[in-house]
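queue> holo job accepted (magnesium ion)
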Amino acid sequence: MKTSGSIIAEKIRKTGKSGELSIRSENLPTWCPGCGYFGIHQGMNQAIQTLKIPHHEIVMVSGIGCAGRYPFFVNTYGFHSAHGRTLPVATGIKMANPKLTVFAVGGDGDGLGIGGGHLPHMARKDINVNYILFDNSIYGLTKGQPSPTSMVGFKTKASPYGNEPAPLNGTLMALAYGASFVARLFAGDAKGIAAVLEQAIQHPGFSFLHIYSSCVTFDKQYKTWDFLNKNVHPTADGYDTSNHKDAINGVLEDDYTTGIIYWKKNA
Ligand SMILES: Cc1ncc(C[n+]2csc(CCOP(=O)(O)OP(=O)(O)O)c2C)c(N)n1
Ligand code: SF4
Ligand SMILES: [Mg+2]
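queue> job finished
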């Protein structure tokens, strides 16, 4: 008879043999069980495997935060930089060795708060870096303060009467700054992340992947799995990813469409 232990052992053996987790380092993620970041990790792993990019030709650059811990968990080169400085460090690495596939990884606080001034310049210079914004609408690592993408009314220990300022819209910002590849994705859809990331990696300019995620430990109120599962939906059939104006209008109308939102193919 199969015990639950033997079932788990069999799953671990199968997963190991499939190479599905080949990008993982020996350091297992320290994220909380149920954190959306596992789904993002899975999607990134799948894309890298499908494209067969040798791991020693990849650099993962991060800032600070739960998302910022990412380079420790992957078997590639990595750079855990300062809070908000992900994009300048990634730029330097790509310029020094353009053959490398460079990823910039960070949270919503890292990328749209303290580091928010770097996104426009990355977009206008169209530097070939893949920026993965892990957006859980909260400061996770520092234990749950409101972030630049938190919803109005969000109650935390740091906002006991409810968060007042309106959230920033990262996807809209990237479009307005002229980014040549903009996607919005959901951490609960690892396959969707992988499919879009494969295109983003092959895109010769800057790509911005805005991934909605859930912080299961500090947000039981808004960006929960339930909420995101109910609200995210793909762009309509026949959606034209080359129309910049339509992309902007679509994002203004709907916060929860997912997929490639805009792609300037001749960038
Ligand atoms: C210069 C500086 N300011 C503030 C901090 C404290 N700090 C560390 S992580 C963080 C925010 C983390 O939130 P986010 O970037 O959204 O990442 P998450 O933890 O949610 O993945 C802050 C404010 C710091 N480490 N360095
Ligand atoms: S605190 Fe939140 S964002 Fe950080 S690992 Fe835990 S669930 Fe994920
Ligand atoms: Mg965050």
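queue> The mean pLDDT is 95.
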